[in-house]
Automatic annotation (TrEMBL):
Ranges for domain EamA: 17-149, 168-300
Predominant cellular place of this UniProt entry's protein: membrane
Name of the protein: Drug/metabolite exporter YedA
Species classification: Bacteria, Pseudomonadati, Acidobacteriota, Terriglobia, Terriglobales
Organism: Edaphobacter acidisoli
PANTHER family in alphabetical order: EAMA DOMAIN-CONTAINING PROTEIN (PTHR32322:SF2), INNER MEMBRANE TRANSPORTER (PTHR32322)
Length: 322
């Protein structure tokens, strides 16, 4: 989200450390929370509740603390576009996929965001190409992706196409998320980052509400402790605690360091999935996991040739998992 100060100020070490723990652990654990949620709630019910509740809290806090909250007409249009792309198509794509694939695999597929960002940046005016390190990362990343998709593709050849379709939905969601991040990086919001996030949450939630009503699958929701716990965790720790820590880090720490969550979150998700849900990868998927994480490291560390600012890092940091 934009509207953040351009240069970091002096950080409080303890607060910075806690903030990093929040975006590393809480955002990494959201894949596990979504996996629990979609076991009892249709995906669009889960994301609708998550985003609308979080939107009301964020926008309400802006009003209470008298922060600028009303966007201009132009800002409103951009917030609608970003909110629908990121939270109406991007996040729900990953959530829908977790009905059929593990939370760890979903997190690794979502980790392709830096690869998409690198490719999209090169197609835009006023941006240059990647150095050799970036191209190597993209090659390794998509090679690793083929390893991750191989078990699902193999199953589809035997008549079970659910996993490969779910993987495709997760990749489509990651692509939409990246497009929204690129747009967000190029848009300045007078109202500031928190208010902009609140409006994006609202528009993303409303879009998901329309999809939920159109599909009519909300009747299949099984309300209980598991459902409400999942929603509460995603709202409190995914959307509020994690995002607050993220905003603090953007204000006080170089963007390149904040962007490291892009390759830490999948590790957290895979570990939690293995320990709590007993998810296991087949050997070829472990190869894919290593390749994707290495690719993200290479791409996020590669500057575009047009200048000193690492715009890939900015795009990833702009895509905080609200």
């Amino acid at each position: 989200m934009k509207g953040m100060p351009g240069s970091p100020s002096s950080p409080n070490r303890t607060r910075t450390l806690i903030s990093f723990v929040c975006i590393y652990f809480f955002w990494g654990s959201t894949f596990l929370a979504v996996r629990y949620g979609v076991e009892v709630l249709p995906p669009f019910v889960l994301v609708t509740l998550r985003f609308l509740i979080a939107a009301l809290i964020v926008l309400g806090a802006c009003v209470i603390f008298r922060k600028p909250v009303l966007p201009s007409r132009r800002e409103l249009g951009m917030l609608v576009i970003i909110g629908i792309l990121m939270l109406g198509l991007g996040n729900p794509g990953v959530a829908w996929s977790e009905q059929y694939i593990s939370s760890g695999l979903a997190s690794l597929l979502a980790a392709t965001i830096p690869l998409y960002a690198a490719l999209i940046e090169m197609l835009l005016p006023n941006d240059g190409g990647l150095p050799a390190r970036g191209w190597l990362g993209i090659f390794i990343g998509f090679l690793g992706l083929s390893f991750l998709l191989w078990p699902g593709l193999r199953d589809s050849l035997h008549g079970d196409s659910r996993q490969i379709i779910a993987a495709g939905a997760a990749l489509f969601g990651a692509f939409c998320w990246t497009c929204a991040s690129v747009i967000s990086r190029r848009t300045r919001f007078r109202i500031g980052g928190f208010a902009a996030a609140g409006w994006q949450l609202l528009f993303g939630g409303l879009f998901n509400l329309c999809v939920m009503l159109a599909l009519g699958r909300y009747h299949h929701a099984r309300w209980g402790v598991q459902a409400w716990s999942s929603v509460a965790y995603l709202v409190v720790f995914g959307s509020l605690t994690g995002f607050t820590a993220y905003i603090y880090l953007l204000d006080h720490v170089p963007v390149s360091k904040v962007a490291t969550y892009a390759y830490v979150n999948p590790v957290i998700a895979v570990v939690l999935g293995a320990v709590i849900l007993h998810e296991r990868f087949v050997p070829v998927e472990y190869v894919g996991m290593g390749a994707v994480l290495l690719a993200v490291f290479l791409v996020t560390g590669a500057n575009l040739k047009t200048g000193a600012v690492n715009v890939i890092d900015e795009d990833i940091a702009a895509s905080g998992s609200v």
